[in-house]
Amino acid sequence: MDFKNTLNLPKTDFPMKADLPAKEQGYLAVWDREDLYEKMKASSRGRDLFILHDGPPYANGHLHMGHAMNKILKDIINRASLKKGLGLSYVPGWDCHGLPIEHKVLKDMGKKRSDLSALEIRKKCRESATLYSEVQKKEFLRMGILGDFRHPYLTMDFSYEAEILRSLGRMNDQGRIYKGEKPVLWCGTCETALADAEVEYAPHRSQSVTVLFARTDSQKKTYYPIWTTTPWTLPANQAVAVNPEIRYSLLELTHDTLNLAKGEILVVAEAILDRLRQEGRSPWREILGASQIVGTRTGAQLLFEKPRLLHPFIPGKIVPLVAGSFVQTDQGTGLVHIAPGHGEEDFEVGRANALSSESPVTGKGRFGPSIAAVDSSWTGLRVLEAGPVVIALLEKTRTLLHQEMLEHSYPHCWRCKNPVFYRATSQWFLSLDTAGLREKTLSAIGDVHWIPEKGENRIRGMIETRPDWCLSRQRSWGVPIPAYSCNHCGASTLDGGFVRRIADRAEREGVDFWFEPEAGKTLLQGFRCPACGGEDLSLEEDILDVWFDSGVSHEAVLRKRPDLSWPADLYLEGSDQHRGWFHSSLLTSMALEGRPPYKSVLTHGFVVDGQGKKMAKTLGNVISPSEIIDKYGADVLRLWVAASDFQEDTRLSLEIMNNLVDGYRKIRNTFRYMLSNLYDYPWEIDPSPSPDILDSWILSVWEQTKTSILDAYDQKKFAQVVQTINHFCSISLSAHYFDMIKDRLYAESAGGETRRQTQATMARILDELSAILHPILPFTTTEIAHHASRNSPDKLLDDTMAILMKPFPGPETARIDPVLESRIDTLLELRAIIGKMTDELKKEKRIGSTMEIHLRISGPRDRFNPGNWPDEFFETFFIVSKFSWAPTGPPEREGPVLATAEGPDPESRLILLAAPGNKCERCWLRKTTTGKNPEGLPVCERCYRTLRTPA
Questions:
Q1: What is the distance between the alpha carbons of residues 611 and 74, in angstroms, rounded to a whole number?
Q2: To which H or E segment does residue 873 belong?
Q3: Angle, nearest 10°, between helix axes 65-83 and 634-643?
């Protein structure tokens, strides 16, 4: 007889090799054809909705790993919410306007802005945004993201553009919008103002200079030296600032040195002078060695003198000394040159002292015609490259005291990567102080749940210190600011009624009509300038900051779509969005609604390479989501996201992914083992709880593990979810429980009570564990559900819906048995020691398996068996053919002693002996009953009984 055929050996067509890249495509085809999202919504109708509002990515290229991390995290949370009994309405969106898309289009076309009309640029941008929103949609769907991708929101949709305008109009009606001249961060390459969120900081080398401003109205020639890292701003200088609270030393030269003559005086902050004396660097080493302090003054005293200072190289230009509380003594000289056209603090000082904010710099970042007053050859020169010519002029006029190269962090345009600068221009602004917007926003921040908590302080600090929001941009692709200006008096007008009229038309046909050559004549017919009554009016050409577009998505999407609600339960984006979308959404919502648009905000870090470096094409370290999916499958990518500590920067490399694949295989093979031993399990029967010790133990362990996992889901600690599941699958199940129950699964009667009870235990764990794992691995758990149901392939959607809508398993406190777990833990300590002993015996080839062992434990029985369990349980637990207890003292001889070892305490001892009897040819255990049956079959008593028991 072939006894192997009589065993209940595992059977399953659930493959060990996942082949996820191909299999997932098949599932996606079914889900798309059957519209899985709509079926989910229909199935969960009537539930309370969970609204995770999607922050729109730019539709300007293929997805990168940051996009993948973001959308997968959202999907995990959405699917988990479904399993908590909530309804789900998730609408993905795309940011379609603005510089990123316009920049890409012009770059791809090899064109400059001046080569094309605004309408031509807009047409190409709309085509590009349409293309890439579709490309990204397919890439997101490939990741298994569940959402309303058939009806996404696009900021270039006509209805959305209309809501942008209506939101602007409402803020204007509240008196929050104004036009004014202020310095804003400006990109000379992109020729536009930039928002703070469109600026990134990178190392930059600047030529710093110390420049002499001579006092013209003193008996002794006195210099007020300033220090700056932007010498190109000196042509726009209008004053020198000192801090009224700082003390300044008057340093008189005792003999000639450098450009200074005996008897001349330098005014330098006292604290800085002390530091310069200690450092002893040139030129201060020479100056301090040839000078003496002849007096001190506070900044207030210097200001009282009202000195008149001569500009260092513009002949005849006199500038005042003014107060600046921002002047510090951490660098420079304690005196700061003021160019109101090129700095926020400078501008405020200029406004307080009625200084001009004129600037010779054009929108292209070059010196314009007005620089001819200094040197006509400078016209057209890029200002950020003008340092050498300015320094040469300073040397010529003998007003340069010192120069040196400085490397420091400097703002760059996030799109073209070139350095940016402050430039005073006329722009539209949202006031943060009108009607207490800033104070109300700061108060409301505390009402939001920030994950992690440090996010609250981060955004609070940004709101506290940020200037008014510059809303206007000098581009073509976006929503126009529907303002008009008077060609007679120059006044600009933003009228609420006019804005609403433009919005209504935009909803019907989009906003391209604003950019038509004759638009002004038709749109402004019958209008007059409110300031002077003039009829010669022109439409303004600026568009709205793209952050305003996405910032009002709570109005255009949450409030407008019947399947959504306001405010959202959660906003989830990268940590950079504290100054981006979280920020703009908060300000617009506070202005329009008086409260935040979100109840909770969760942030994640960035994806970096294996060494922690930023991914960049130039470094050759970029890994794309499609590269991972094509090689490993989307579920492995999702597992990487879940297993990461996403609140910090997350490392990614092929080595990391290969290690993760091993983790996925362990999970997969755990399910495969369960499925393979449930091939004949009657799922329709609801069995009573198993009284078996091992079944009770594993269910107790699982219950507490399950509670820990569900708590981690609640806290959005998905790495803890993965870690806990991995440990349970690898240790509790595979290394312990599965190993111990193989004999009963394989060798007991197929329909016998012992095997069926263990199968029921396994079925419960499979059912609950797959539901818990589904938010992270939707493809794999769908495959598991499909195999467990034994349905035909045409029922895949039914199995998908079953696992998708299966709730997280509820608590089963009756399963928990701490006493049992403690007793088993003690035995597991023994098992570990015995495992080392048997491993040595196998290496020495003295045994082939533990089933050749008779295990005897000497010592206090109550220590290891307080439950008075039968010896047969210990044979199963330790997977040995015989188990016995020995009294304290020398063991009785029952066969050759193979090995001995001390137990967990000195009173106990473990003895491994050769098991008596013969090997059963069916179960391979050594039993004295082997062969002792009426037919003389070489099987043990248990196996003979099983063979002769009717099925």
A1: 27
A2: helix 871-878
A3: 80
Note the pLDDT tens digit of each residue in 736-790. 999 999 999 999 999 999 999 999 999 999 999 999 999 999 999 999 999 999 9
Q: Which DSSP category does 613 fall into?
A: P
C-alpha closest to that of 582 among 201, 60, 197:
197
Q: Alpha-carbon distance 518 to 484, whole Å?
A: 14
Task: Categorize the per-residue pLDDT at 892 as very low, low, confident or very high, splitting at 50, 70 and 90.
Answer: low
> What's the whole-model pTM score?
0.87
Rounded Cα gap, residues 63 and 758, in angstroms: 47
> What is the DSSP secondary-structure string of 421-450?
EEEEEEEEEE-SSGGGHHHHHHHHHTTSEE
The secondary structure of 130-199 as a DSSP string is HHHHHHHHHHHHHTT--S-TTS-EETTSHHHHHHHHHHHHHHHHTT-EEEEEEEEEEETTTTEE--GGGE
- CA–centroid distance for 870 within its chain: 55
Identify the helix (H) or strand (E) that includes residue 212.
strand 199-215
750 CB-near residues (< 8 Å, 6+ apart): 8, 680, 951
E strand residue ranges, 8-65: 49-50, 52-53
| Euclidean distance between CA atoms 184 and 421, whole angstroms | 8
Write the burial class of residue 133 (CB in 10 Å: 0-12 exposed, 13-18 middle, 19+ buried): buried
Q: Is there a contact between 79 and 135 (Cβ–Cβ < 8 Å)? A: no
**551 phi and psi, to 5 degrees?**
-65, -25
Does residue 159 have a pLDDT over 90?
yes
Phi and psi for 576 in degrees, rounded to 5?
Answer: -70, -15
Neighbours of 117 (CB within 10 A): 14
Please give the Cα distance from 511 to 361 (Å, whole number).
32
> DSSP characters for 818-862?
HHHHHHHHHHHHHHHHHHHHHHHHHHTTS-SSGGGEEEEEES-HH
**pLDDT exceeds cutoff 60 at 891:** no
Residue 571 has phi, psi (to 5 degrees) of -110, 135
Nearest Cα neighbor of 583 from 197, 50, 170 is 197
Q: Tell me, what DSSP letter sits at residue 738?
A: I
**What percent helix, strand, coil does the chain show, rounded to 5?**
45, 20, 35
List beta partners, residue 930. Answer: none
- What is the C-alpha to C-alpha distance for residues 739 and 759, in angstroms, rounded to an integer? 14
Q: Which two tokens stand for residue 435?
A: 């009607």
| 573 CB-near residues (< 8 Å, 6+ apart) | 55, 70, 580, 581, 582, 603, 604
Instruction: Classify strands 853-858 and 882-886 as parallel, antiparallel or unpaired.
Output: parallel
Neighbours of 74 (CB within 10 A): 24
Q: Taking the CB of residue 11, how many other CB atoms lie within 10 A of it? A: 11
- Do residues 898 and 912 make contact, with C-beta atoms less than 8 angstroms apart? yes
pLDDT category at 188 given cuts 50, 70, 90 is: confident
Structural contact between residues 623 and 615, judged by C-beta atoms closer than 8 angstroms: yes
pLDDT tens digits for 214-262? Answer: 999 888 899 999 999 899 999 999 999 999 999 999 999 999 988 899 9
Q: Are 947 and 748 in contact (CB under 8 A)?
A: no
CA distance 444 to 892: 79
Q: How many C-beta atoms surround the C-beta of residue 757 within 10 A?
A: 18
